[in-house]
Amino acid sequence: MLKTLLPSFQGGDQPKYTSPLLLPLIAAAEKGLDLRPVVQSITVNLGFDSFMYGISTSLRPNQETRNFVFTTLPVEWVLQYDQAAYLEIDPRFLSVLDTRLPYIWDRASERGKNPRTDSFLDDAAAFGISSGLSFSFYDGRPAFVLIALNSTIPVVDDVRQGLIARNLPDIMMFGHFFHELFMKSVILRNIAPTSTGAPLSPRERECLNLAARGLTSDDIAEKLEISPRTVQFHFDGIRSKLNAANRGEAIAVAIKAGLIAA
Q: Which helix (H) or strand (E) holds 78?
């Protein structure tokens, strides 16, 4: 089952300079409170309706990467996203893989690219995700971080773009600050991902079966017609769910559990 991670703030770690917008987050974290209501309030103040943070990193130096997710969206959307392998076609993710610049999107800009993307857009809209802004960055631990703020507004017009541009400095600070908070209170404390024990998606089983047959990430990517980096993110999810340190251990655990054929 998916569990809820509740990041907390360690006393004395408060940055010397920060936006007043983040002060309620700092106060809630210092008290060990559930941060979702505060994160949601900040998100609304920034002109959006929901927040998502994702990170791919390792818990320990001898482990391959796993993924962690924190979001104010319902768990039903998280499960649907996972099982449908929407990571493969999510514009919020794909558009910031190779750039650190923020990406603004809406239904009009993304619709018509392919049937799977259209299906994602329709399903996402049902959960209030019709436009938004996303950005990514790496830190030195190492970790790949994705921040996405979502809106129910289907079209980003000039007025909306102006509002986002005006709030962009606070949006970027919010994302980076939340990342530092999450690293210190979850990752560096070796807390397991929320997805540990969750069922593998059909795509994850497919990747594992191919890996068990000796295919590399490049081989799997070519066979499934996705990028090698997307294959890597699938294996991040697999290792997270199976609590495996590496790909070989994940294959062994899956075979033992009868999830894939030997």
A: helix 75-83
User: Of 241, 250, 210, 252, whose CA–CA distance to 228 is shortest?
Assistant: 210
In this prediction the pTM is 0.90
- Same domain for 130 and 24: yes
Among 165, 189, 213, which residue terminates a domain?
Answer: 189
Per DSSP, 260 falls in state S
Q: Is residue 4 part of a domain?
A: no
C-alpha 33/C-alpha 25 separation (Å) is 10
| pLDDT tens digits, one per residue of 233-258 | 999 999 999 999 999 999 999 999 99
CB-based contact 86:120 (threshold 8 Å) = yes
Is residue 209 domain-shared with residue 158, that is, in the same domain? no
